[in-house]
Amino acid sequence: MSDDPLIDAPLPQPAEEEAPRKSLTIGAVCKALSQEFPDISISKIRYLEDQKLLSPRRTPGGYRLYAQTDVSRLRTILRLQRDEFLPLRVIRQELAAGRAEDDGPPAGGPAPPPPDAVRPGAALRRLTFSLRDHGALYSLSDVVEETGAEPRLVKELEDFGIVRGEVRGGTRYYDETEREIVRAVTELSRYGVAGRNLRVFKTSAEREAALLQQILAPSLRSRNPERRKEAIEALENLAAVASHLKHLLLVRDLRRIAK
C-alpha cells in the first residue's frame, strides 16, 4: 500500500501556460514509463530521489509532482542504467557534467522509439546483461546463421562448458546471452583463440559471480518478493560496477604491453 495518497489521484487543472505539459503524480510517471522500462516501480523512483538524482516539486501537503523535465531526466537515468550499465555515482557525474537529457514526448504520450534504433549496440549490451529475462531461444542453425560461427565451434564451447543450451523436444536451444557468447568467441577465433583458451574467462566469471552472490546472499534468499527484487537490482548494479572495474584494469595492463 503506497504512503502517497495521490499516486493515482487526478491532479487539479494546471495553469494555462502549463496545460500542454502538465505535472504528473509519481504513479502516473511510473505508468507512463513502464512500457519502455518494465522493471520501473514507485519504490525505485523514490530511491533515485533519495540518491539526489531527482528533485520533484512538492505540494504544500508534501506530495510529489513531476514536471516534464523531471520525467525526461528520469528517462535518461534509466537508459544510462540499462544501456550503459553505469552506477548511480557515475550517472550523477554525467548529469552534472551536462549529459544531454532526453526530451522525449510527454509522459503518457506516444512511446519513444526503441533505444536500439538510436543507440547502436544498446540491444546487445542489454541482452547479455539481463538477469531476469533470458529472452528468445535459438536453435543451432539460428545461432550459426546469425553469428557466422562454425557448428564445430559451438560444439567445442559446449565441451568446455562455455555455453550449455537447453534441450526441448529433442532439439538444443540457446538463449540470447549464449548466442552473443558464440558471436564474441567467433571474433576471438579469428585471432587463433580456441575453446581451451577460454577457461580463464570462465573461471574469472565464476569467481566474480560467487563473490557478488556472497555479498547479497541474505537478501537473495529472502522469501519477501520485494526484498528479493531489490536484491536482484542491486546485483545488476554490482555486476555493472565489477564489469567496469575489470575493463579498467584490463586497459591499464594492456597499456603497459603497448609501450
Describe this structure as you would to a colleague:
- The chain has 259 residues and is mainly α.
- It folds into three domains: 16-120, Multidrug-efflux Transporter Regulator, Chain: A, Domain 2 (Orthogonal Bundle), CATH 1.10.1660.10; 128-193, Multidrug-efflux Transporter Regulator, Chain: A, Domain 2, CATH 1.10.1660.10; 199-259.
- The chain is 54% helix and 6% strand.
- The protein contains eleven helices and five strands.
- The chain has helices at 26-33, 42-50, 68-84, 88-96, 115-118, 122-127, 140-147, 151-159, 176-189, 199-220, 225-258, and strands at residues 57-58, 64-65, 137-139, 166-168, 171-175.
- A three-stranded antiparallel β-sheet has the order 3-5-4. Strands 1-2 form a two-stranded antiparallel ribbon.
- Strand 1 and strand 2 form a beta hairpin.
- Helix 10 (199-220) runs antiparallel to helix 11.
- The longest helix has 34 residues, at 225-258.
